[in-house]
Amino acid sequence: MIEVRNLTKQYGQKRAVDNISFTVNDGEILGFLGPNGAGKSTTMNMLTGYISATDGQAVINGIDILEDPTNAKKNIGYLPEIPPLYLDMTVKEYLNFIYDLKKCKLPRAAHIEDVCKLVMITDVYNRLIKHLSKGYKQRVGLAQALIGNPAILILDEPTVGLDPKQIHEIRTLIKKLGKRHTVILSSHILSEIQAVCDRIVIINNGKIAADDTPENLSRKLSEDHRLVARIDGTKDENIKLIKGIKGVVSVCADMERENGTFDYEIETEENTDIRRELFKRVAEKGRSILMLKTNELTLEDVFLKITMGSEFDFGSKKKAESTVSEEQSRDLHEKVDSAVLAAAVAGLSREELGETDDNDIDDIEEDSADTDTDIDIDTIIDEIDTDTDSDPEDDEEETDGGDM
Questions:
Q1: Burial, 162: exposed, middle or buried (Cβ in 10 Å; 0-12, 13-18, 19+)?
Q2: In the predicted model, is pLDDT for residue 295 greater than 80?
Q3: The overall pTM is greater than 0.70
Q4: Hey, how many other C-beta atoms are within 10 angstroms of the C-beta on 378?
């Protein structure tokens, strides 16, 4: 069990971690998330005793990491983002070295063999670490964290740089380890966190911004209480059936998806779950629910909404779309078309005008100047740049240019 109480880390005037508190229970896999510079790695380094806290406590299985670091660290297996490997050693030499370093009391040969089987590195046991692939090096790093069978595992980006197959293998391994160990997992791969972790803590600007299960976070932050159900049978009868369920606010039938099957978008009251009652009533009519899904936020949406605040609008609970409406876009395009046409008229060459004399040309230019569609192209382009989101790559280039 890990208890973090009012933990603070100060670097001069910069407060990297600001009075945070949370608990990780025995046998729990905790996802520890945060944007770069949020204080995530600093917190993990304080939990492992790598750096000291300015204030507060980190208690590992009842032992304060600052008051008794030696005994506290016996309970911790730590895999930093860059595994602490000695590349000129073989896997066998390295794991035996770690065994001695940790003063492990378990039977040496049997324990190291068990760890190697668990992380699947038995086939490279006698190879030099520097000759191993990235995936195998990551597994060896995980093996050193498991030496001594610590009760707590702290894993910082354990799948960074791995291919999809290796990521799946490490993810499966972490799930297995979670049955016998308390695990803190930090990763920028949010799908990995969602698939593996029982609970999530999000840190932002040095403070705890969220602490709950992925499902509860999505539910709490979601302003959209809708289900989409695909039900066979007559559309009007199904709409009447659904509207009769307590807690249903509105029902809207979508187009026919399959023969005799429609999708129904069902809006419900807040904190109302109609799924069981919906299934019961549909079954009573001898019909089938072929698909049922919610419009809850994904973990990526939750993370962005918490860490970026009002800069992101997830009111529709779909991926953020362009901030320019269709009507605005249409108006802008019409202005551009008008400007191009005006520019083309004003830019006719004397050769294109043929035999027209200078006085006639002056009359054309005066008429053009007097027209109600006097539009400046530069002004319209500026308006487009203002009303639409700029490209991130362009922003980076402009920033770089300003620094020179």
A1: buried
A2: no
A3: no
A4: 8
